[in-house]
Design goal:
heterodimer; A: alpha+beta; Ubiquitin-like (UB roll); 2 helices; 6 strands; B: Cytidine Deaminase, domain 2; globular
């Protein structure tokens, strides 16, 4: 089964584990299986419409799945998925 | 409540001052218990914003992935992100909010004329519509 590394703040939604293992042959299947066991984790990662939240990136080992085959990217038993947020900002000239 | 220890605090403010007049950014590692969060390590990360960095910052997700691996290897937790606001208050801007993530504490360092001035910490919501202020403690000496 593939391994999913859980970011620290989300471990409270994953039985306090720092990683989970879940079955599946694609990224989508593995994440679906893992979050089916942990519905509160699912709410953190997916919208109510079932899409990954806008700030959520998924890496297969060292590769961003957006540049692979997205949620249809094939996953092997020794692969590791990481959940990594997009973060940016700045005051952007809004006020001095 | 989030408390930042002396060494990471000195690194964060030095990073913010050295990067002035541009914005800096980095990751905060530490631990969490029933009393709150304690930052024991600051990791300076690249500002990957391709436009002017005077009022924008962007973290590469792969850098954040490395920071998370660094935390795991040290038996620490990735608990927050910091960035600076050059010549601007340490508020959580619309740009900060629209590009935030609700999982982490966001420390904003105000740098005025090249010197650290003040800081605040923020906890954005999942909808990226609101950020609550989080009590922030740092060494005052």
């Amino acid at each position: 089964m593939a391994k999913i590394l859980i970011p620290t703040p989300l471990r409270q939604y994953a039985d306090k584990k720092d990683s989970l293992e879940a079955p599946g042959s694609t990224v989508g299947e593995v994440l679906a299986a893992a979050t089916a066991q942990h519905p509160d984790l699912r709410k953190q990662i997916y919208t109510e419409e079932g899409k990954l939240r806008s700030f959520v990136n998924v890496y297969l080992n060292d590769e961003d799945i957006r540049y692979l085959d997205k949620d249809k990217t094939a996953v092997g038993a020794n692969d590791t998925l990481s959940i990594v947020p997009s973060i940016a900002g700045g005051w952007a000239g809004e006020r001095a | 409540m989030i408390e930042i220890e002396l060494q990471p605090w000195q690194q964060m403010t030095a990073h913010a001052e050295a990067t002035y007049p541009n914005e800096c950014c980095g990751a905060m590692l530490g631990s969490t218990d029933e009393n709150g969060k304690t930052v024991t390590v600051a990791l300076a990360l690249d500002n990957a914003s391709t436009g002017s960095q005077r009022a924008r910052y962007e973290l590469r997700p792969e850098d954040l992935l490395k920071a998370d691996r660094e935390a795991r290897s040290r038996k620490l937790e990735l608990i927050g992100i910091y960035h600076s606001h050059p010549d601007c208050d340490a508020y959580f801007s619309e740009t900060d909010l629209k590009n935030s993530c609700p999982w982490y504490s966001f420390v904003v360092l105000s740098v005025q004329r090249g010197r650290f001035d003040h800081a605040n910490c923020w906890l954005p919501d999942a909808e990226q519509t609101h950020a609550e202020k989080e009590e922030l403690s740092w060494p005052k000496s």
